[in-house]
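#dry-run=false #mode=assembly
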Amino acid sequence: MRLEEDAVVFLDQRRLPLEEVEVRCATSAEVAEAIRTMVVRGAPAIGIAAAYAIALAADRGEDMSSADRVLRESRPTAVNLAWALDEMRDDPSREHARRIHHEEVERCRRMSAHTAALLSPGTRALTHCNAGGLATGGYGSAVGALLAAWEGGVLQHVWVDETRPLLQGARLTAWELEAASIPHAVIADSAAASLMAAGQVDCVITGADRIAANGDTANKIGTYSLAVLARHHDLPLYVVAPSTTVDLAMPSGAGIPIEERDPAEITARFAARNPAFDVTPAELIAAIVTESGVHRAPFQQSLAGAVAA
Amino acid sequence: MRLEEDAVVFLDQRRLPLEEVEVRCATSAEVAEAIRTMVVRGAPAIGIAAAYAIALAADRGEDMSSADRVLRESRPTAVNLAWALDEMRDDPSREHARRIHHEEVERCRRMSAHTAALLSPGTRALTHCNAGGLATGGYGSAVGALLAAWEGGVLQHVWVDETRPLLQGARLTAWELEAASIPHAVIADSAAASLMAAGQVDCVITGADRIAANGDTANKIGTYSLAVLARHHDLPLYVVAPSTTVDLAMPSGAGIPIEERDPAEITARFAARNPAFDVTPAELIAAIVTESGVHRAPFQQSLAGAVAA
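#status=ok
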């Protein structure tokens, strides 16, 4: 992502990894559309994109309050967008936008090092969606932490949730990990639990779109699911995000606006691990119902009776 | 699914719901291939298919022990396949195969009624994969229970996990529920947890591929994940399956063979609900890492410090 003389230029994240295509946005409205359609995505990255759009708008003599409004409404959940627009209000210069970009990447490097220091040698981490360089304007938050852990020699393997429906994990995170030569495998989102039960996951590491004052964290659909699963398997969940993602004005997660996107979003397919079944321990089942009736624990007795009947 | 004079005929489940195409298998080996490639799928259904294949093989004068072996090895997890082959060994007649089919559907009707009786009026159930008429030779196990509950006036809505990677929920269960005019919405598998947290799910109902003697249950990848999530949200998980799915010779789930399928399995897209994010309560997060350091609970203090720094 970069600001040129007459445009903000993005690598189109919708078409990765099959094609590396740039999209040029010549107006702030075009940047807003690129954010809305996810040409550029990731909370820090859309904040940087908005900063560049404001700088472009100022140079072009656009109506600045209209530019601010259209950008601010382009996506609702990530707070970085509002943060960057607030930052740019008093100084809509190109230098300011570039400084925001630079500082965001620096934040990524620092929090990544902090996170890597939490991990033990041989860590097998599971991540969801994409919180890499593409999502943050460079280096990455969750993926940045994985890069730092890999460089530090403590990372052994990364499980990448494919992340339905837009497959940011399969498309973007796997692509970034491949580029860094970090061992990884893409899995169906629903396979994470059985890998945890099999003792093949040591921690969950994700980014965030907005963190409320009490720590409640909005992130890609499925993060909450992983959090519950990690707790059940006694694994830590680490959320890696710059402070620009923290919204102290939001007391808790209850007030964070959750975007509902078009049901028809596109699918794709990629190399993956693909176990077709998993095993649910009896202890988690309220009843097994066969034609002979409703069977409850202890199943050892009730099922034997069911089959004998 | 039906046995004709010279073939076992299947509705190709891989092409539903876009196309309704029949596949004719003229030999037991062709039926085994149809099971392997999931032209026909669902534990009870592949048992019935194997019974028909044996009847066909007997009429054609095939080597019966070879037919048995090839069918038995076509898929590893569902025990109904081995059960049906064992049943057919002493009487490989067409009448016997048809009786197995008829009795399996009768079992479905009975266990569906048992399950419906467990549900309270206004139930919003969540189901995974497809355990409907397609999967059982008629009526269905988990979907059968939903049909019975709908007919009994206690079912309000069904959440249908799309069920990656082959999307049996989005393709088959949604198709069956639509045919029965039961209100439903397809969701990304990873969205189930946030619906539970939002109080929009009353119970989880699934089928099974094999149930061990202690009640451990193998079912489509993602079922275990739902089980953990249901427990966390204090919701019951009901497993609905015929007794032919119970394997008393298997002491626990640890010994059940889990199929690993081709990573390149096909995707597709369908109408769906599509929330793009969810909220993870702070209570489930081990640490939030920003550029200023590792923040732990109470986040109210640590995050305020992070942003002020």
